[in-house]
Design goal:
Helix content: 25-40%
Radius of gyration: 18 Å
Order of helices and strands: HHHEEHHH
Largest sheet: 2 strands, antiparallel
Distance between the termini: 28 Å
Structural class: mainly alpha
Number of strands: 2
Oligomer: single chain
Length: about 170
């Protein structure tokens, strides 16, 4: 909620983002399979399907109380991750092309941020990595923001002028 308060992202905007995100996920069977994990290390490929998308409406989200009991808190269970979040490096490629080095890292960076305001450090990290690579956000065909809270996603997208419209996560 401190990030939402500092960046002035209201509850209604967070809920609107959550409703859209879940609606798109449920509408796309392709997405549901794209969000699977191939389990490596056994003879057969076991898949775990993302069961997180829920049928949400603005009305259903209004029933949730904020997750912390402070004045003007706006983050609710409906606009947060269902289970948990973390970080990973991921290669997305057809299974038959995963043998051998078919990708390369062209830039990386290390940044930090105020732990009291999670969600803003990825903005600086993205800006630095793009600069190191000689690229701009406009050069990207696909952008996926994996954050636990709608407010974090919106706070990340705002500086890149991507927080409105269908440019992100068009599925």
């Amino acid at each position: 909620s401190s990030l939402a308060r500092i960046t002035r992202i209201c509850r209604e905007r967070q809920e609107g983002y959550a409703v859209r995100s879940h609606r798109l996920a449920l509408a796309s069977e392709h997405h549901r399979w794209a969000e699977t994990s191939r389990m490596v290390g056994n003879d057969r490929a076991a898949r775990v399907v993302d069961d997180g998308p829920r049928r949400l409406t603005s009305k259903s989200l209004r029933r949730f109380s904020p997750i912390i009991d402070v004045e003007n808190a706006t983050v609710t269970p409906g606009t947060t991750a269902r289970i948990s979040d973390g970080a990973a490096g991921v290669v997305v490629a057809p299974l038959e092309s995963t043998d051998g080095p078919h990708w390369r890292i062209i830039a990386s960076t290390l940044t930090g941020g105020d732990p009291a305001v999670p969600g803003l450090a990825p903005v600086e990290a993205t800006q630095q990595a793009l600069a190191h690579a000689g690229l701009a956000m406009d050069d990207m065909d696909v952008i996926e923001v994996v954050e636990a809270f709608a407010a974090q996603v919106i706070a990340f997208l705002e500086p890149f002028h991507l927080a409105t419209g269908d440019a992100i996560d068009p599925r």
